[in-house]
Specification:
This protein is mostly helical. The chain is 75% helix and 0% strand.
Length: 192
């Protein structure tokens, strides 16, 4: 289990958006919304460079979950590897522990742990994104739909692991939101 955790963390710690951004001469954490992830990179540079981040961030979840699930141990070790990939993405050892929200890495890990659920929710999310013209709405359907659809294919114990991974993402969003509120309140109370 320790090997699965370390493997997941190391894969997750690869700062794909930071590497791609630095090759282009900037750090994405200093621009846009400051998140070193696909959505910010898409807004900053668009096109092929952002797609690299998309694919690589998903693979950061796929690789450790697949390795841990197929080589040794009980089924939930893939969940351990996936969880630590999320932690690595959020707090990357190779990028000063300043990382992203882990959503794509979560979807990558879940593509291994619950492939049917991910396939269905990604399709539904894409439909929502196209109809609303808001990727954020589609992404919510993709992520939050996974455990509900997963219940159709897997036992509750598997869905509990999914819930733990989702709780980590929720905490990341909460911390970032509270940080934004704190910075906003300081800006309003600081002298001009």
């Amino acid at each position: 289990m320790v090997i699965a955790a370390v493997l997941g963390y190391l894969f997750g710690s690869i700062p794909t958006a930071v590497v791609v951004g630095r090759r282009m001469g900037f750090d994405p954490r200093a621009f846009g919304d400051g998140n070193p992830g696909w959505l910010n990179m898409r807004k900053l540079v668009g096109g092929a460079q952002a797609r690299k981040v998309l694919v690589l961030d998903i693979l950061k979840g796929v690789a450790p979950a697949a390795i841990a699930s197929s080589l040794w141990g009980p089924w939930w070790w893939g969940g351990v590897a996936g969880m630590f990939a999320l932690v690595g993405h959020a707090f990357p050892a190779f990028a000063g522990f300043r990382g992203g929200r882990s959503v794509l890495t979560f979807m990558g890990a879940m593509a291994v742990l619950a492939p049917q659920a991910v396939g269905i929710t990604v399709a539904a999310g894409l439909v929502v994104a196209v109809l609303t013209r808001k990727f954020a709405y589609g992404a919510r359907v993709m992520v939050f739909g996974v455990p509900f659809v997963q219940l159709l294919f897997q036992p509750v114990s598997h869905v509990v692991v999914t819930g733990v991974l989702m709780a980590f993402i929720g905490l990341r969003f909460l911390v970032r939101y509270l940080g934004t509120l704190s910075m906003s309140s300081r800006a309003h109370t600081s002298p001009a």
